Amino acid sequence: MTFQLDDTLALLERTPGTLREQLAGLSSEWTESRPDAENWTAYQVVCHLAYIEEEDWLVRARMISEVGPTEAFPPVDHGDQSARYAGQPLEQVADRFSQLRRSNLDAVRPLLTDAAALDKRGLHPSLGEVTMRQLLSAWAVHDLNHLRQAQEAMAFRYVDEVGPWRVNLGVLNRPA
To answer: Domain 5-172 is in which class?
Structure first.
């Protein structure tokens, strides 16, 4: 498969709505469940996505477009950001994520004027040189990764309740 800008932007536009449809109005028993202490809850996933939207993708896209590989991207904490949004209900954090995503996509589109813009390079602090195309691809896959993570966390709420069906439910059969 090859990179398609329009498809990538379409996916990025849909992530906030997908999260909202999946999580809004659910009880905390769903949004706070998780497989174990090492894994995030759906609420933590939403907090992480909102934070990363504030601090990561657009900053890096602008640096690729304006600075190039002469200066490394600033470091970003990719950990749990729920303390940052402490006391805010999931819907409020999801709204923040949605607003930020809309604004970021509006800001990034003018940077993507032609094929050459996708080949521009920036400097990741640990991965080295990366292109705008790679950044946009990683942004989309990052979304998909965390959507899966939220679904997996919620599925574990019923890990024992599914009984013998567990063998048929891949989301509950994590590698040891």
So the answer is: mainly alpha
